[in-house]
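Hey team,

Filing this mostly as a record. A colleague (T.K.) asked me to run one chain through the structure pipeline before their review meeting, and I want the input and output archived in the tracker in case anyone asks later how it was produced. No errors, nothing strange. Just documentation.

Input sequence:
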Amino acid sequence: MARAVLLAGAVAWAIGGLAATVVAAIGVESLESLLPPLAIDTDALRGAILAGAVALGLGAVLHGAVLL
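Output structure:
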């Protein structure tokens, strides 16, 4: 049971990281239009989203490492 939970967690974290990477690559302008006026520019928003994607990817790697 624990192995299935770890596998599901690794997959979920990986999908989240991939989705955040896609948003950082091609969807940041549409996301920025939904937000109130920001004190940061588009590149800074993209960087913040990419940092979140890296963190999600690291979570996936760590889940996979524990699983192995």
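Quick notes for T.K.: Helices lie at 2-34, 42-67. The CA atoms of residues 6 and 29 lie 34 Å apart.
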